[in-house]
């Protein structure tokens, strides 16, 4: 059943479906003032996910992040109204692979913007915990925004029992174990994306991708080290290294 055309909250009109996630569906909407927005609707039994995302993301106002603006109820379902992140998901944007060969400047801009968002998030004591292509919206020039904060929470948050949080292909070793997660976990996800940009593919479980002549290879390896204590932990320093290494010339 479509709900496009419905008006909810303070005059937000639902226009079309944008996508479906594991916890919600997202609609493109237009506010009473004519401004675009996104409306994230959760099933009633996942109300705690909606509440958690609203609580953690409400004051996260940064140009490289979707901003949660309000929490409402749609019929009996909890919903969040957020700013609209233009573009398409990272994998939809970079269809010519490897991205760092085919569209190096744009892909570097995308990773830089993700790192800007992570620095802002980490500086406030929070971690995203689900860095993956579906949660990065990219425009044609490579500009990007980080979205979807329903798995986010305080850095090194303790759980009652080991809890695996994230998406399989991008899980850090500590996330696979169900350990508490810090900034190094988010930066591991950036490392997986960097490796994908270098090689044009994600490794199979237990597979080691081969070395290349790309000067970004050492950074990719550092970000995806098994031991989180041996990984970079500062998103701003990673961005600095990314841009400095990218200036070096190389031949495939």
TrEMBL record:
Q: Summarize where ATP binds, as residue positions.
A: 40
Q: Which domain of life is it from?
A: Bacteria
InterPro entries (UniProt xref): Kinase-like_dom_sf (IPR011009), Prot_kinase_dom (IPR000719), Protein_kinase_ATP_BS (IPR017441), Ser/Thr_kinase_AS (IPR008271)
Q: Which SUPFAM superfamilies match?
A: Protein kinase-like (PK-like) (SSF56112)
Which keywords accompany this UniProt record? ATP-binding, Kinase, Nucleotide-binding, Serine/threonine-protein kinase, Transferase
Which CDD domains is this protein grouped with?
STKc_PknB_like
Task: Output one GO MF annotation.
Answer: ATP binding
Q: Name one Pfam family in it.
A: Pkinase
Occurrences of domain Protein kinase (ranges): 12-252
Protein name (Swiss-Prot/TrEMBL): Serine/threonine protein kinase
Q: Which organism is it from?
A: Deinococcus cavernae
